[in-house]
Each structure stands twice: as C-alpha cells, then as structure tokens.
C-alpha cells in the first residue's frame, strides 16, 4: 500500500475543500491509501504517520503573499525531522487557495517547494497544461489558473468553500492522483 499524507492548514474551509479534492484523487489510485492531516493539531502519532508516508502533499491558504502562519509553524516544527533528514527521498507536492486570481499564490508554492527540498524530498509539479489561456478557454478549464509547480485554487473573498469552482477542485484531484501514481512507481523501483 502506498501511503499518501495530505498535510494542510485552512483558516476558513477553502483550502480544506481543496485538500479533500487532493485526498479523493490519491485515494482513487489502486493500491494507495490517503489521509488528511490538519497541521495545526498534529499529535505525536500523526507526526509518526507523516514520517512513514511515501509522499506528503502540503497545502495552505495564501495569506499576505505566503503560506499561513499556522502552516509556517508546522514548517518550523518539522525542523526536528530536518536534523535527521527523516523525510529524505519522499515525494512532495503542494497546493494553495487564495481570493485573488493571482494573489501571489506562486510565492506560497515556491515556499513549499523550497521547504520540501530542505528536507531532501522529491518535488512533483502539477503536470497539467494551463487552461483558460486562449479564446476558447473558460474558468471551467482544468488548471484554469495556469500553475505548474502545484495546484492553485481561487475562492471569492465573500463566499464560502461550497462556492469553489469544480475546475479548481478537479485540478487538485489530478494532483492527488499524480502523486499517488508517482509514489507507487518510486516504491516499485526501490523494491
Ligand atoms: C490574513 C489573510 C491574508 C490574506 N492574504 C491574501 C493574499 O495575499 N492573497 C490573496 O489572494 N488572498 C489573500 N487572503 C484571502 C485568502 O487567501 C482566501 O480567503 C482563502 O480562500 C482562505 O483560505 P482558507 O479558507 O483555507 O483559510 C487572505 C486572507 C487572510 C485571512
């Protein structure tokens, strides 16, 4: 069984919904198990499960142009793992939600990619061509925000998570599936 951990923070539920979409994509891959971890409430047993995972997908809302402070607390707390490079050669990927179309989401994904590489993890990008970038495109396209290094979602500031666009959720589901398939391939290769 390939274990996929989705380690995320969400202040108001939008990134949580995106995390659930990543989870659905990973869990649908044959031979994979997926589990959500709220990083602001991790106990020792859950830290140990992250240590045992084949892949960790990181998720945070973009607050003030970077990952939320709660997610940064998790990043800093993970330094105990960094000392022993406990997460070295695990697969990693990332996702973020923000209110603006750009909103500097790229900065959050770059922050996660740097973080993963500090841990010696292997970063998996989104692996999708950009949508909604030509005259035939629309907001309903997969990867409509045109990210490459991770999954982006945009949620209107005055609406709840239930109003999030299916296209963004399907993009997140794609990332979950890609991570689970790649983690399984890595596991087969290592075995
Ligand atoms: C403190 C704070 C800072 C924010 N900064 C940004 C930002 O830099 N860019 C942006 O597009 N949206 C920003 N937003 C909006 C959130 O990214 C957006 O509401 C997102 O959907 C929240 O996700 P969550 O419900 O998972 O917390 C900010 C919201 C808060 C509360």
Automatic annotation (TrEMBL):
CC terms in the record's Gene Ontology section: membrane
Domain Flavodoxin-like: 4-153
Magnesium listed as a keyword: no
Keywords carried by this UniProt record: Flavoprotein, FMN
InterPro entries, per the entry: Flavodoxin/NO_synth (IPR008254), Flavoprotein-like_sf (IPR029039), FMN_Rdtase-like_dom (IPR005025)
Pfam families cross-referenced by the UniProt entry: FMN_red
SUPFAM superfamilies: Flavoproteins (SSF52218)
Flavoprotein among keywords: yes
Taxonomic superkingdom: Bacteria
Gene Ontology MF terms: FMN binding; NAD(P)H dehydrogenase (quinone) activity
Protein name: Flavoprotein WrbA
Organism lineage: Bacteria, Pseudomonadati, Pseudomonadota, Betaproteobacteria, Rhodocyclales
